[in-house]
Amino acid sequence: MSDSRDDETTTVLAAGCVLWRHTPRGRRGDGLEIALVHRPRYDDWSHPKGKLKRGEDALRGAVREVVEETGMGCTPGAELPTQRYVARGLPKEVRYWAAEAVPDEVFVPNREVDRLLWLPPAAARTRLTYDHDRTLIDALLTTLNAP
After folding, report:
1. How many CB atoms lie within 10 A of CB 81?
2. Predicted model pTM
């Protein structure tokens, strides 16, 4: 991953997805699960995301990051709210999309992400490390018209 910054403002540009799937048969739940990734470098739980490569389209970067961090393909849907915050002393802007996971893909731990959890929305909210990531779950549920 290369560092992508807006030359005029030094804003770090990134993109990601709130990855979701229908609850697999035989599992309890409301019919929806959200994927969260654990990054050992930061010891945090978040949605799959990462910095854009120079000149990379944000949606293409978001899908690339899902594949890199989870090993899964996805079908992107509606754009979700853009998150803006300061990370490592620099302003960061992360564009997000709702994305349905492609069925039958298998997660393989890697250097960036060592764990992936599929959780119902309420449990995902609790597990997320950063408050700004929690609002994306509400936006996803609104987009999907889910409870």
Report:
1. 13
2. 0.88
- Spell out the alpha helix ranges (H) of 40-97: 58-70
CA atoms within 13 A on the CB side of 54: 4
What number is the average pLDDT over the span 60-76?
Answer: 96
CATH superfamily for 12-144 is Nucleoside Triphosphate Pyrophosphohydrolase (3.90.79.10)
The residue whose two tokens read 């018209």 is: 145
Beta-carbon contacts of 110 under 8 Å, excluding residues fewer than 6 positions away, are 68, 69, 71
In one letter, which amino acid is 104?
Answer: D
| Position 47 pLDDT exceeds 50 | yes
Contact indicator for 98, 77 with CB cutoff of 8 Å: yes
